[in-house]
Design goal:
homodimer; 16 strands; about 30% helix; six-stranded parallel sheet; 10 helices; Quinone Oxidoreductase, Chain A, domain 1; alpha/beta; Rossmann fold; about 325 residues
Chain lengths: ~325, ~325
C-alpha cells in the first residue's frame, strides 16, 4: 500500500453520530510496528463513549474506533523483525490504542499476541482488551491471590465473562451481580450470583462479611451510591477498582471506612497505561494465562458476529445491554 | 522488676474519660523484646481517639495510651541481644502499638531506633510515629519522587512539621493549608501556604493545575467535602492518601475523576500495618532519613513539654488544636 492513498476502509462517525464504512488513509508503519490485515474487530463499551465524543483516542492513534482485532501480519518494519519472533503470515490478536474498525491497522509488535490454539479468529479478536483488562484489574491493581474473595460487578458483561473464569482458575472465591436471569451466567462458575433486581448488594455483602467472606477485591464498572454503601462490609486492605460508572458517577463515601480499614479506591483504565505497562501485561498473559485458554479453563465468549458494515447494529446490542459476552465485527 | 507486680505507673482513663497516673502491672518481656525505661512519651491524635474509646489498641498491647517514647534500654531478651546491635544503657526512641504513657514499656528490638545525634531525648520521643507515618505516606503509599507536587493538609499539625521538610529535602514541591497565621509555619519551607479561612482549596488547586502544578500526592487528615471537590484538579495517577477525617467523614465523589485519571484514594494508618512493614519502615528511616535529621534539614518540632502527671492538660492542647508541632510528656 502506498502512503496516504485513500484505499482502505474504516468505520467513521457522522456528525449525527451515525456510522459509515468509508475510505480513509492507509496506515503508515512507524518504528517497531507491524501491519495487520484485520479479520475481526471486537466491540468495547469504550467504543460507544468514543463515538459520543466522550473518550478521545490517545495521540497518534487513528480517529476511528476499535481497541482490539485479530488478523494476519502482512508487513513488518525492520525493528519488529529484529525484536520479535513474528513473521509475515502469522496470525495474531492485537491490543490497540484505537483504529481497529478498519481493513488494516498498524501496531507495535509487542501489542500483538499469538492466537491461542483452540481459538477461532473471531474468538481471538475478543481476547486482547478483555484479557489485558482482566489481568490489570485482578493481578496488577488487585494483587489477587488464591483464597481471596472477588466482587465482580455486572456478571453478564464481556469483561466478567473473562474475569470470573480467570479468577476461578487462579483459586479465588467469586461474587458477582446480575440484573437478568442468574442462570445465563451459570457456566462462568461464580460462587455467588446476586440478582440486584431483587437483592440489595450491600445487604448481601454484610451477610457474607459475617460469614467470614468479606471481599478483598472489587472490580466495579457500575459505581453509583452502591459503592459507598458497600464499603462498610469489605475486608481490611480491600482494593476497590473503579473501571466505569454505568450506574452513576456520584457516590457518597464515609471516609472512616477508608482509613480505618486501609481500603484503596483505585481508578483504572487500561487504555491510558504506558506502552511499557501494556506490553508487560500482554507478555504476562501469554506466559501465565495462555495455557489456561488452550485448556479451555478460560475463554473468550463471543455473543454475536456481524459484518463490519453493520457496526451500528452491533453497537445497538451494547447500548441495549443485550449481549452476554463480546460482540465481534467480521472485516474480511 | 517482678512479673505482675503493681509497681509501675501509667496513665489510665477513668469512666468519665478523665485521666489518672496510677499503678499498673509491670511489662513482661516476650521474645525479641527489650525493656525501655521511658524518659519522654509524645502525644498523638490517636491517643485522644483511644481515650474516647474510638481507637482500641491492637491485641497484645497495654490498654494505656502512647504510640512513641524515648528512653534507655534497661533489659533485653536473648533474642534481642542476638539479633540487634543494641546493648543495655543504649538511648533509643521506639514506635509502639500502645503503652507509652508509662514508666516502662516493652517493645521488640526492631521497633527501636537509635536517637539521632543532634536530638534531645524530648525531641527523640517526637520522632517515631511522625517520621514513620511520614515515610509510609510519602514513599510507601505516595511513591514520592523529586519533582512531584505534594498537597499536605493541616500545615500546622505535628505530622506536617515532619512531612513538609522531609518532602522538601527529597525535592518535592509542597502546597499546604492552614487555618491560622501562615507565618507560623514559614520555617517549614512549603512552597505555597493556603489559608483556607479566606481561600478555597479547590480554587487554588484549579489555578495550580492551570499553571502546570497539579498535585501528584495528597496527604489528607481532613477529608470532608473538600476531598471530592479537589479531585477534578489533581494530576493523572494522583495518590490521595486519607489518614483522618477531622473536617468530616463524608464526601461526595464524582467517580469519573477517579477512573479517567487513574486516581487512587488510599486509606492508610500506620498503626494497623504488619510488624514486618513497620520494621522495614523504621530501618529505611534510619538508613535514608537519619542523616538528614542529623544535618538539621528535617527535625521533630516539640511544641511543649509537660510532666506525665499533667497528661490531661497536654491532651487539652491537642483538643484545642493549639500546638504547632508535638506535645511531649516528661516521664522521668
Amino acid at each position: 500500500m502506498k502512503k496516504g492513498d485513500l484505499q482502505m476502509k474504516a468505520i467513521l462517525v457522522n456528525e449525527d453520530k451515525s456510522l459509515r464504512w468509508d475510505n480513509v488513509p492507509n496506515p503508515v508503519l512507524t518504528e517497531n510496528e507491524v501491519l495487520v490485515k484485520v479479520e475481526y474487530a471486537a466491540l468495547n463499551r469504550a467504543d460507544l463513549m468514543q463515538r459520543e465524543g466522550d473518550y478521545p483516542p490517545p495521540a497518534g492513534c487513528p480517529e476511528w474506533m476499535g481497541l482490539e482485532v485479530s488478523g494476519e501480519i502482512v508487513e513488518m518494519t525492520d525493528g519488529a523483525k529484529a525484536k520479535s519472533n513474528y513473521k509475515i503470515g502469522d496470525k495474531v490478536c492485537a491490543l490497540l490504542g484505537g483504529g481497529g474498525y478498519a481493513e488494516y491497522v498498524s501496531v507495535k509488535y509487542d501489542m500483538c499476541m499469538p492466537v491461542p490454539k483452540n481459538c477461532t479468529m473471531a474468538e481471538a479478536a475478543a481476547i486482547p482488551e478483555a484479557f489485558a483488562t482482566a489481568y490489570l484489574k485482578l493481578f496488577v491493581e488487585g494483587h489477587a491471590k488464591s483464597g481471596d474473595t472477588l466482587l465482580m460487578q455486572a456478571g453478564a458483561s464481556g469483561l466478567a465473562s473473562v474475569i470470573i473464569p480467570m479468577a476461578k482458575a487462579f483459586g479465588l472465591h467469586v461474587v458477582t451481580t446480575v440484573i437478568s436471569n442468574p442462570e445465563n451466567i451459570k457456566h462462568l462458575g461464580a460462587d455467588l450470583v446476586v440478582d440486584t433486581r431483587i437483592q440489595s448488594l450491600p445487604e448481601v455483602l454484610k451477610t457474607e462479611e459475617a460469614a467470614g467472606r468479606a471481599i478483598d477485591i472489587a472490580i466495579d464498572c457500575l459505581g453509583g451510591q452502591n459503592l459507598g454503601d458497600c464499603l462498610p462490609y469489605v475486608k481490611y486492605g480491600c482494593r476497590w477498582i473503579v473501571i466505569a460508572t454505568l450506574a452513576g458517577t456520584n457516590t457518597n463515601i464515609d471516609l472512616k471506612n477508608i482509613y480505618k480499614k486501609n481500603i484503596r479506591i483505585v481508578g483504572s483504565t487500561l487504555r491510558s497505561r504506558t506502552p511499557e505497562m501494556k506490553a508487560l501485561i500482554l507478555s504476562n498473559l501469554v506466559k501465565e494465562v495462555w495455557s489456561r485458554v488452550e485448556s479451555g479453563e478460560v475463554k473468550p465468549t463471543v455473543y454475536k458476529i456481524l459484518p463490519i458494515t453493520e457496526a451500528e447494529a452491533a453497537h445497538d446490542i451494547l447500548y441495549r445491554g443485550e449481549n452476554v459476552g463480546k460482540v465481534v465485527l467480521k472485516v474480511q
